[in-house]
Design brief:
Elements: H1 2-5, H2 9-25, H3 29-45, H4 49-66, H5 69-86, H6 89-105, H7 109-125, H8 129-145, H9 149-165, H10 169-180
Helix pairs in contact: 2-3, 3-4, 3-5, 4-5, 5-6, 6-7, 7-8, 7-9, 8-9, 9-10
Length: about 180
Amino acid sequence: NIQLSLGNYNDAISEFTRALEIETAANNNLGIAINYANLGACWEGLGRLDKAIPLYQKSLSYNEKAGSFTGIAICCNLLGNAYLERGDYTRAIAFLRRALSVHNQVHDKINVAENLITIGKILMKQHHPDSALASMHQGLAIAREINSRTMMIEGLRAIADAENQRGNRQAAFQALRQAYGM
């Protein structure tokens, strides 16, 4: 994990591969899931989504076997963001909505807010401004409820971008002013 956080992806791949072998020998589905996700993160860090996505999918499968709601949500977020990076908005939204569902079940409001804002951004890219803004405003409301300054700024900036794209400069300006006034 230290190698991964330092961006030493090849060293991290080596260590996670060894850890995966140990977890596989122990038949520990949760350990296997974690190592597949970490390997995916390494490959994503190397710019290889073609290798990362199948590893995230394997991780998701093992998290489902282990019954780990947290792991399922993490993998759905990873897959959603990977597909978003690829420009596959349909798959990105599908995984992010699944993650959102799990986050709602476990009352993880910070991730609910983040998923709603991200889904809103994708909906804007798909030219669904009304749905996009509704999702962003819902995420912003939750961010305010839990007093997450970071998520409030993220939500307000997303709303400003969306309003600007719609040509509503006054609303965009007001959202930016709120974001930078925090």
